[in-house]
Design a protein that fits this description.
The chain has about 325 residues and is α+β, with helices and mostly antiparallel strands. About 30% of the residues lie in helices and about 25% in strands. The strands form 5 sheets. The protein has a 5-stranded mixed sheet with strand order 1-7-6-4-5, sandwiched between helices. The protein binds acetyl coenzyme *A (ACO). It is found in: Cytoplasm. Belongs to the thiolase-like superfamily. FabH family. Keywords: Acyltransferase, Cytoplasm, Fatty acid biosynthesis, Fatty acid metabolism, Lipid biosynthesis, Lipid metabolism, Multifunctional enzyme, Transferase.
Length: about 325
């Protein structure tokens, strides 16, 4: 039996943290109190305008590859989960592959499932590895959401941040990923979207993120609870067997409500939203890498990674680290 196991993790945040008070100083009509009370966010990192997703992905990937103890040339599959790609094409994964100096490599592609992107990408890479077609995958979540935020819309611009996280997933005789579940319901797309496109050189529609915050909140809490239960059951385990819940970091109240629904105490939930804001597809691997590097996440522990995002999409991956 071939399993897919996380061999190493890495992450990267651009620049210095930008606090809620910094946003006020930049002229946004908000307050630290409003943002912190409703979302738990205290700060986020925002990339300079010329910094791209593939650059952030590269920095995170170098760290993950080093942690895995392998070389870029050992990677035979790259999946980058992003909603803020460098270009329409080539894919951010292809640009990342070039930055890593890999030539004549295996498959590379981007995966677009918004904030569920990393869970989708990890589950997809697992299928490639378990089928025997690939040996070592680089799975990345990389975002520069600052590009698609309407900085005149205080209801959304304060919520997001930029960053990247990566894992190296490799074939192993020992169990790694134990269960995966991916879902979508496109009928909910209007509650969170960037409803624009470039057509003949002109932006058609709206190039900025639009959200019905309260509808997103309700939907997120419901499906995060359901999909977490689904993967735990699939693996023949109980929620009590999970050492760490690592959810997509949308906001603290969603994390708390999800933990409560699942009966998982907050001490077992990795929360980075206060420092990172919502980094969409990057949030789960950023949180995972932080917890690996500060020693909370240990080899042999069971981790439940789960996300929800635009589409709407949602999914979870249960793994033994
Ligand atoms: N600072 C100060 N006041 C603000 C701000 C701000 N940044 N943004 C909105 N307000 C005001 C509004 O103008 C409104 O004022 P009014 O009552 O005078 O009209 C008031 O605050 C309440 O606005 P609501 O939008 O109703 O605020 P709500 O309590 O719903 O909180 C929030 C908004 C935080 C977005 C909440 O709905 C939420 O947490 N939703 C979850 C959505 C989320 O986390 N999305 C992340 C992306 S999706 C994902 O990752 C899955």
């Amino acid at each position: 039996m071939i399993y897919a196991r996380v061999a190493g993790t890495g992450s990267f945040l651009p620049g210095k943290p930008v606090t809620n008070d910094d946003l006020v100083a930049r002229g946004i009509e908000t307050s630290d109190e409003w943002i912190a009370e409703r979302t738990g966010i205290r700060m986020r990192h925002l990339a300079e305008p010329d910094v791209t997703a593939s650059q952030l992905a590269y920095e995170a990937s170098v760290r993950a590859i080093e942690a895995a103890g392998c070389q870029p040339s050992d990677i035979d599959l790259i999946i980058v989960a992003t909603s803020t790609p460098d270009y329409i094409f080539p894919s951010t994964a292809a640009l990342l592959q070039a930055r890593l100096g890999i030539t004549n490599g295996g498959a590379v592609f981007d995966l677009q499932a918004v904030c569920t992107g990393f869970a989708y990408a990890l589950a997809t890479a697992e299928k490639f590895i378990r089928s025997g077609s690939n040996k070592r995958a680089l799975v990345v979540g990389a975002e520069v959401f600052s590009r698609i935020l309407d900085w005149n819309d205080r209801g959304t611009c304060v919520l997001f941040g930029d960053g990247a996280g990566a894992v190296v997933l490799e074939a192993s005789a020992r169990p790694g990923i134990l269960a995966t579940a991916l879902h979508a319901d496109g009928s909910h797309s209007p509650i969170l979207s960037v409803p624009g496109q470039i057509n003949r050189g002109v932006v058609i529609g709206d190039p900025f993120l639009r959200m019905d915050g309260q509808a997103v909140f309700k939907f997120a809490v419901k499906v995060l609870g359901e999909v977490a239960r689904e993967v735990v059951e699939q693996a023949g385990l109980t929620m009590g067997d999970v050492d760490w819940l690592i959810p997509h970091q949308a906001n603290m109240r969603i994390l708390q409500a999800t933990g409560k629904r699942l009966g998982v105490p907050m001490e077992k939930v990795i929360a980075t939203v206060a420092q990172h804001g919502n980094t969409s597809a990057a949030s789960i691997p950023l949180a995972l890498d932080l917890a690996v590097r500060d020693g909370r996440v240990q080899r042999g522990q069971k981790l439940l990674l789960e996300g929800v995002g635009g589409g709407f999409t949602w999914g979870a991956v249960l793994l033994e680290f």
